[in-house]
Amino acid sequence: MERWSSRFGWAQRAAAWNQQQARVFAAEHEQRQRERAVVEARKLKDVNERRYQLAEKVLDRVEKMLAFPLIETAIETDDSGRPITILRPAKWSFTTAWELAQLGDRILRQSLQSASEQYSSHFSHPAPEDDFED
User: Fold this and answer.
1) Per-residue pLDDT tens for 88-129?
2) What distances in angstroms separate CA 51 from CA 48, 84, 107, one per listed residue?
3) Cα distance between residue 120 and residue 99, in whole Å
4) Burial, 55: exposed, middle or buried (Cβ in 10 Å; 0-12, 13-18, 19+)?
5) Distance of alpha carbon 59 from its chain centroid, rounded?
6) Which one of 45, 53, 112, 129 counts the least CB within 10 Å of its CB?
7) pTM of the shown model
8) What is the reported pLDDT for 132?
9) Residues β-bridged to residue 72
10) Could you give the 3-state DSSP secondary structure of residue 83?
């Protein structure tokens, strides 16, 4: 049996087979990791997009609030039919607008920071080295 083993190079062939199987396993594992990374990147992109849209809505609301006065004017009539101007305070203040602006800014910054980190980590990896031997 030893004679046949050395004659047909069974030990070397078995070692080569094992190395080939290890390379196949590693490649399959790497492919699964890449697929998972793509799924996670898409989820993160969707979350960032939703954050960004939310921030835009909040900041749009602040702009609309600031475009209107802090007093609401209503004209009603008294019992004799004369018009009466009623001034009512708005349901918001400049403090409310400021807090909303800060919230919108914070959400927007988080969204942009997260997107920046996601893409910078994606593009900061060096290109893989070729395994060709000279």
Assistant:
1) 878 888 898 899 999 999 998 888 888 888 777 666 655 555
2) 5, 46, 6
3) 31
4) buried
5) 19
6) 129
7) 0.56
8) 45
9) 88
10) strand
